[in-house]
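Dear Dr. H.,

I hope your travels went smoothly. While you were away I took the liberty of generating a structure for the chain from your last submission, since the lab meeting agenda had it listed for discussion. I wanted you to have the full record in hand beforehand rather than looking at slides cold. The sequence, exactly as received, is reproduced here:
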Amino acid sequence: MAVSEAQARATAKYKAKNYKRVPLDLRKEEYDALKEQVDSVPMNTFIKKALNAYTGQEIFKV
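The corresponding predicted structure, in token form, is as follows:
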């Protein structure tokens, strides 16, 4: 199903207001090694779980 221009604008506006992007630069070989370990889990989910474990708090609901 195609997304209308209005829906795309609304989504962009919502994301701009409610999300903060956090860039993470990894060397390609580091990313590949990490991806092998992560395997079946999306990288975003893995990073959120790792941050929860690191802080000892459930900051992210995953």
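Two observations you may find useful: Residues 8 and 14 are 10 Å apart (CA to CA). Residues 24-62 form one domain.

With kind regards,
E. W.
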